[in-house]
Every structure is written in structure tokens, then in C-alpha cells.
């Protein structure tokens, strides 16, 4: 199965090189190339992309917080002409860091690293629990106990059945990627629900007990997913 990727690069020669390398690999499908980061973000908010090749200098100009605003954050392989930015890239949980000019051998090594990580993610996609850092502790959260997750400006709140809600500093997009897709569903920029905890829904909102949560305009498939996955 092909992995969907996009390329964000403001220098045409470098963009063309990465695109040609990606097109030569049977396991990658280039669905978009961008010199403008805002156009790339617009696509990422509409389509699930597996991998993004991104010039880290573009990200620095925008600010790293822009990554937390992406609805469907992909894995990232950063590119740059500067060695000294590598540490910052890996602090952002990058798959790899490619120094320009990028050789095909180095590009292939980075893609293979991504494929290994992706395979591991698929193997571990149905965990029973996750750990979240809160108040200098790692707190175990059993997924069967989660009703929904609510996002605020710089933190999320995990609402649970048997325990108090847990406030942690994680981007909601990153948490979405950690959760098993068959059990949890993003219904809004600010909400992820446990499918089995949904008690009723319309085209505009989802009910979990007495709590009503809005369905965002960017999520037209919510009702279909809830019906297919047997929420009710």
C-alpha cells in the first residue's frame, strides 16, 4: 500500500529533486508539492497525509506552534542547508533530517526509517492504555475509560468515566494519531470521542450521556462513521 506524501520547499530545484526521488519509489505517492506553507496546511486540514517533507526554515519562519493546529498531522522528514538545526528538528519528533543537497541514498534511508516507524505504529494501533505526562508524573489512562477528549489553546482535557478529567499539555492532533481509529473519532477541531460511548447523534452534534458536542463543518463523515462502526 502506498503512503501519501507532500513536499513543502520554497526552492524549486530542491523541491524538484525531492519530488523525483519520491516518484521513483513504489511505496510513495506524491499528492502535492508546495512552495507556500499555508497551502500545505490547508490540504493537511482536509486530507490524511502520511508523510511530509518540509524545509525546516519554512517552519521556523511560521513558528513551530503551527504544527499543533494541523487537523491531521503527518510524520515529518525535515530538510535544510544548515546542520545546526538538526537538534531542533528531532525535538519536534522528526522522522529524519536531510541535509541539502540531498543524495538519493540518504533520501532512501530516511524513507525506509519512516516505513519502519509506520509498520510499528500499525502493529501497536490497538493499545489498552496510554501514558500522559501530568504534573511531573506519567499517568496511565485506560482507553476504555475515556469518553471524549477536549482541546483548548495549549492543552487537552481527557474526560473519563470512573476518574476525574485529566488535563495534559499535548496537541490534540498528536493524541489523535496515538488512538486506535476503530475506537475513537475526531468530530471537531476541539473534540475526539470514544465511539462506543456515543449515545445519540445528529448531523450537527454528538451526545455522550448528557453532554452534547458539536460536529465541525470539516468533518462531514462523522454520522457515517458512527453508523458503520456501530456506535448505536
Automatic annotation (TrEMBL):
Q: Where is the PTM 4-aspartylphosphate found along the chain?
A: 55
Note the Gene3D superfamilies from the entry: 3.40.50.2300, LytTr DNA-binding domain (2.40.50.1020)
List the transmembrane segments: none
**What InterPro entries does UniProt report for this protein, alphabetically?**
CheY-like_superfamily, LytR-like, LytTR_DNA-bd_dom, Sig_transdc_resp-reg_receiver
State the PROSITE patterns in the record: HTH_LYTTR, RESPONSE_REGULATORY
Q: Which domain of life is it from?
A: Bacteria
Which Pfam family, just one, is annotated for this protein? Response_reg
* Stretches assigned to the HTH LytTR-type domain: 130-198
Q: Which UniProt keywords apply?
A: Phosphoprotein
SUPFAM superfamilies, A to Z: CheY-like
Q: Where is the Response regulatory domain?
A: 4-115
- Single GO term (MF): DNA binding
Its ancestry begins with: Bacteria, Pseudomonadati, Bacteroidota, Bacteroidia, Marinilabiliales
Task: Tell me what this protein is called.
Answer: LytTR family two component transcriptional regulator
